[in-house]
Amino acid sequence: MSFFDKIFGGREEDSEKNQLWKYIESEDDLKKAIEHSFTQKIAIFKHSTSCFISKTVLRNFEKEIENAEQKPELYFLDLLAHRDLSNKIASDLEVRHESPQLLVIENGIVISNASHQHISADQIL
Question: What domains are defined for the chain?
């Protein structure tokens, strides 16, 4: 790990390897996540992989979840790789796009929505 990685929180691959997440990389993945919200509350974290603020918020959120007693159903969307899916989420779920953004979904409806420093594990726990 480089000096800068130690100061600024490591490389992006670290989050991609994190077992907390199920990845949304297709419309089918998104459909399955929404379907799952009918049996259990889920959260989708929309992350801009090129944004330092988004990386910082993601790392803080992951630490909160890792320290939590219960492990919620979490989905991860890379906004730069899948802008079309982000737009579909905004349109289908009627929520304005922001980045980073955490959407908590139950029964196919967004019940909580936060961005930037307002993102917290408390929203889903």
Answer: 20-123 (3.40.30.10)
